[in-house]
Specification:
It is a single chain. The protein is of the alpha+beta class and 380 residues long. It has 3 domains: 115 residues, Butyryl-Coa Dehydrogenase, subunit A, domain 1; 100 residues, Beta Barrel (Butyryl-CoA Dehydrogenase, subunit A, domain 2); 147 residues, Up-down Bundle (Butyryl-CoA Dehydrogenase, subunit A, domain 3), CATH 1.20.140.10. The strands form 2 sheets. Strands 1, 2, 3, 4, 5, 6, 7 and 8 form an 8-stranded mixed β-sheet that branches. A two-stranded antiparallel ribbon has the order 9-10. Strand 9 and strand 10 form a beta hairpin. The two termini are 27 Å apart.
Amino acid sequence: MRYSLDEEQQLLQDSARKLLDARSPVAAQRELRDRNDANGFSRRLWTEVAELGWSALLVPEAFGGVDLGHAAAAIIAAECGRTLTALPFLSTAVTGVTALVRGGSPEQQARILPSVAAGTCLLALAIDERPRHAPREISTVAVRSDGGYRLSGQKIFALDGHVADYLIVSARIGESEQDGRGASALFLVDAAASGVRVERTIMIDSRNAADVWLTGVQLGPEDRLGLDADGAALLDSVLDAGRALLAAELVGLARECLRRTVQYLGERRQFGRKLAEFQSLQHRLAHLLCEIELAASLARAAAGAVQERGEDRPLLVSAAKAKCAEAATLAANEAIQMHGGIGMTDELDIGLFVKRIRAACETYGGVAFHCDRVARLHGF
C-alpha cells in the first residue's frame, strides 16, 4: 500500500490547492452562508472544476471520464476540507458515480455518466431514514407493479438532494406497501418524477441536504441498480466510498485547524511572551500533530482499499472514519481552547471549521457506529 503521493497525485494536489486558494477561500463559504444561496454551493465553481476533471475522476474513460480512482478523489476531498469548500463532489462524483459504476447497467451508465463527467448532472444518495445513520434499517418499499416497481417511503439527510437530477434510493422489495421483509435494492429515481417531493434542509455547517418523500413512484425494471447483485453489499460498497472520502476531508479540516492554531499562538502574546513559547501548549500541539498523521495514514489506506475493492475494505474504512473523526474533533477542540474566548465567535473562521467537523464526523456513521462495525468484523 502506497502512503506517499506519486508524481501524478502530487500534481493533482498542487493544482487543487492553487485553485481552491484562489477561487474558494473560506470567505467564499461565508458569503454562500450569509446570502442563503439556493444551491448551497457555487455553480460557477462546479463548472470550473468539472472542466478540470473533478466530476469525472471516478468515471470510466469510455463515458468521458478520467478514471483516476478513489485515492485521487481523496486528495481533492482533503483540499476541499482545508478551505471548507462546499461542492456536490461527495454526493455526485463519489457516491453517485460509485453506485453507477459498480451497480449500473450499461444503458444506465451510458445515459448518465457522460453528463455527470461533464458536470451537468447531479446525483444524491437517499438512504437514511433514522436520526442517526442506520443504512440497514429500511422502511421504504418497492412493490412489484406492472413489470416494474412502485416506490413508497421517506428518506432524510440526502446530501445535495435539493439540487440532484437523480436520486439513488434504497428500498426493500415487497409484494405490498406493508411488506418490507424482502431483500434490499438500490433504485435510480428521476428527481422530477411524479410522486417525488424534495425539501431542502440546512445543516449546522450551513451545507445542504434534503428530506425526500416518495409516494407511489412508478419505476421500470431498468431503474434498479445491481439487478443481479446483493443490494446490501452494493450499498455498503457505495457508502464505504463516501466514508473514505469523508475521512480524507476530516484530515484536511484537522490540518487546517492545527495550522491556524499554530499561527495564532505565534502572534498572540501573554506575560511578555508569545503563546507558542509555552511548553505545555507545545506538548498539546505535538500530540495533535501525531494524531492527525496517524489518521492521515488510515485515510490513505481506506481510499486505496475502496479503489482496489479489497476484502479488508470494510475494516479499513471504518477504522479510518472513526480515527479521522476523533483526530478532527481533537483538532477542533484544541483550536477553540487555544484561541481562547474569541474562538467561539463567528468573527473567527475557526468556528466554521468546528461546525463542519461536527457534521462530517456524523455523516455516514459517527465514531460509535464505526467502532461497533470494526468490532463486529472481528467477530465480537
